[in-house]
Amino acid sequence: MSENNTKVIVGSEEWCAFPELGIPAIKARVDSGAKTSSIHAFNIQPFRREGLAWVSFEIHPVQDNRRIVIRCERPVVDKRRVKSSTGIAETRYVISAAIKLGEDIWDIELTLANRDSMGFRMLLGREAMVSRLMVDPALSCTTGDVTEDTLSQHYGPTENKKTGLKIGLLASNEELYSNQRLLEAAEERGHEIMFLNIKQCYMKLDAQDPEVHYRGGRLLNDLDAVITRIRPSVTFYGTALARQFESMGIYTTNSSAAISQSRDKLFSLQLMLKGGIKIPTTGFANSPMDTHDLIEMVGGVPLIVKLLEGTQGRGVVLAETKKAAESVINAFKSLRANLLVQQFIKEADGKDLRCFVIDGKVVASIERTAAPGEFRANIHQGGTASIVKITPEERILAVKASKILGLKVAGVDIIRSKNGPLLLEVNSSPGLEGIETATGKDIAGMIISSIEKKLRWKRDLVQ
Questions:
Q1: Is the bond preceding residue 137 a cis peptide, omega within 30 degrees?
Q2: Which CATH architecture has domain 166-254?
Q3: Which range in 84-93, 184-193, 325-334 is most confidently predicted, on average pLDDT?
């Protein structure tokens, strides 16, 4: 800032630097509508140093590039509850660091947030601009631009040699956030990964020489591992492909048998009860003639009616009166739809827990809250998610549930009741966006790391 205190005019986006964090260049969105500045961070880990609260975290400073990683450590200034632009509420760590914008350097506060899905790795809020900057939205990079060559000089080559494993991602939609993150996480670690659309795979059944081919005739027998993310609508063919890969000696993250068990909601709940896991009281019937007794079996109304084939909250209905319950059950039955009738846990207050389990360990957990007017927590239908500390009992339940089904990667949904935690269901293809955004953790990277561990593959870490 000049000696006469004239404010610097900045545009809608600007390049800046954080010398104390080891970040020579990062592009920020300038947003006077946001109070606090934030910076992209993942693998956020709190710790104590000389009795004080510190936090370590990693940053991808260049947009659309997860190969470049900067690791940082800073004292914690504060922890604040923030609602992101996507509607997800989260508690964020706040740090202080010196920002360099043009020729000026001053200290600002930054919240740590996973901004992978955002347009910029950093957001510059109005608190950082007070008495220093004025914004002209028609301009951009007024304090200096940074070219690709300059970025290469700062961060080194961005190309990552494929010297690792050959991995297939067996799924249906390459554009989904979860699939994109897994593709990027594998490439970041030097692996060769390809997206395999389930419907475009076909197989040769042969006792001596089994094969899986992909569109155009490409043979897939040389894969080291397959990440199985099979949507419910293609469970039959998807699990058949997974079995074929398994017969060829190729490792699958979730086996065909585990996925099949998890998709059969009735069978999976029976397995849970056999394994000593508590669930909400549940009823199942095949005839509308049993509707009255079915309702009383689960404690009367209100109650939940679930389609066995429902996903992501679809096919789940709250019946608040006996007449409504009978109507919904009989309507579903007239369509020959298999359904469960389940006890409504009123004290949960529209909240549930999603625990993400990898290799028998809960690596992240969030609390999901239902949208206004809804009874079931679901971020696909306008609900919100926030970080939550689960109890030892809830942690044990999540791990045990995934082990009972044989799932190496699972999203375990739990509801808190007056009688302790109850299992709702286990998802064999859990989404990553909500939990990565809320927790700032690199869940996709953890899944790739679990494959490396299983196959005893080690990579050279280059900082």
A1: no
A2: 3-Layer(aba) Sandwich (3.40)
A3: 184-193
